[in-house]
Amino acid sequence: MDGDHQRLIRQIRQRLESLARAGIDRAALGPLPEMLPVAVAPAVPRIARAETAQAPVDNRPEPKESEPVPTATPLPRRRPAAPTPPSPIPATLGSLFDEPGITEPVVPPEERPEALRVLAAEIAECSRCEVLCANRTHTVPGEGNASARLMFVGEGPGQTEDETGRPFVGKAGKLLDDMITKGMGLRRADVFIANIVKCRPPNNRDPEPEEVRNCIGYLERQIAIIRPEFLCLLGKPAAQTLLNTSMPMGRLRGKWQRYKGIPTIATWHPAYLLRNPSAKKDTWEDLQMLMKAMGIPIQKRGGGG
After folding, report:
1. Which of 12, 107, 121, 131 is most buried (CB neighbours < 10 A)?
2. What is the pLDDT of residues 122-140, one digit of tens each?
3. d(Cα 282, Cα 267) in Å, to the nearest integer?
């Protein structure tokens, strides 16, 4: 069995495990994705299919000259649908299957700040992870605009975040602020910033898989409340968790992904950029892709300092 088939089997297994964790034990079958001879074909945006669809063809034979022309009023032909403007976001998914969109009811914008506050209070009382709960000073639920167009998702709180209860306020947070303000021309208050786990892992280690499983529901509920138009995933743990993949960051970044129908960019974590300044060029390219899709003018100077 070659590497492509093994990777396909592994991705299917990961997807089925993800559905099982979400409590889904069956699904309606739809049209199967188009397959290349060896690898899975890239997902084709639905909008592209709509644009190439042709109007129904009337295959009824025309009456011969010797036959009487029917006098009954023929049924009107269906008019072709008006063309839809093309989407600026190509659907290049890291997943084998189409992710369902957000299924939770829409929270009205005026109710979202209170909904996030209630969720933050619930997070503060969480005791699912014995090690994290025993070592935390504060939980770090996240902060920002409750109706933000853009949401940043990182890995987990560090020491400064644990001490303050706020996300991305240490050295990596300062660099993220520069990416948002100097690079993208936005304010920190315009976006929402959160992590896949809400408590600091000891010694700033990567979150354990069980810790992620215990905590990921809080992030999913935040995304469902805020309904961001775009997601920016910072670092490997956040990207691999939300995109349900084991692909390395070098293959995930630089292209569009989707999470529950939301256009998503994965890029290097600011802490990684502090250790590897040469990767800032890659991150600035990723931010420019994001800015172009959001309609934000691209400044001449690079982002992230």
Report:
1. 107
2. 999 999 999 999 999 999 9
3. 8
